Model the fold of this input.
Amino acid sequence: MAIIISIVSYPFLPAKSGGEKNVALFNKYFSKFHQLTCITTKKNNPELVNGYEVRNVFSNSKSRYVNLFYFFLIRKMIREKKATHLILEHPYYGWLGVLLKRFCHIKLVVHSHNIEGMRWKTLGKWWWRILLNYEKFTHRKADYNFFIQDDDREYAIRNFGLDPIKCLTVTYGIEHNKIPRIENLLHAKTQLKAMHNISPDKKILLFTGAFKYKPNTDALIRIIDTINPLLDDVKNFNYVIIICGMNIPAAISATKYSNIVFAGFVNDITIYYQGSDVFLNPITEGGGIKTKLVEALGYNLNAVSTRHGAIGIDAQWCNNKLLLCDDDDWRSFSKLIIRSSSYSGNITGDYFEHFYFENIIKKAAAFIE
Done:
């Protein structure tokens, strides 16, 4: 068993967004195979975990990323724990990881959630190339590199000059390994329609996300301005679109739109995944894998996505549960929604084989040994 120090430089407990859930679940399952201590910011709540230790070391200030004092503090912890491996979530603390590797003779693991430089390029940030080169430096210094999906792994091998033997795809996952029972789905649909006063004849279309993130806000605007009007023009298609998630812009949520319900942040998204008919994923920007799409399909929910939004998910694993169209082809997107709303097939066992978290982390835990 390895002794792991994990560095998570941002709040993730409680986990609300997909990225935060990915860290929380990764640590939860990784600690089943190796001893894990997570060093993180003071905003995190250590009472929300079991199976591993959380130490609130980093300040909440942005200056934490350049604070040299943390090198000496974490070096002391590594020596006390006799740690064998250091995991960096994202490359932002690359300088710290590289120094600790050199002076503590510890194996460095970089857990990438996106190719960060390229993600920020798609978001129009001028400094993306600086970040990309720093990211390249960090990955090249690592002993092991985890990537969220195959395209990111292949990009890094090709453009960062990484040894493929040191690289592994460690995707986002789900905690169940079979589809929900049909009675659970029917009960959730009944509950959902009662909660939001939805008539029995209407199909429920779902979109969810964290709306401080620009690609999610852009997708929401597409739904309101383009997709909803296209669907509204279709005769005899009765539907409602439910929008879930944190930080929906007030100017949007305060406006009444035909066929749209703003649920906002919900404590338990499960009932929405289980009770809806189609998940909408009109994402055209950003990187990594779309965690909400992984979750939706895992609940046996039909989904329609752009090709960019479905990166990291092979439609062949989905038995026609996932329908794809070209980015920005919203007329085709709307037609696929109607087609998907009446499909009754089930997600495949191959899907759960690939996205069940215990399977994913078991491979990752063995990889660093």
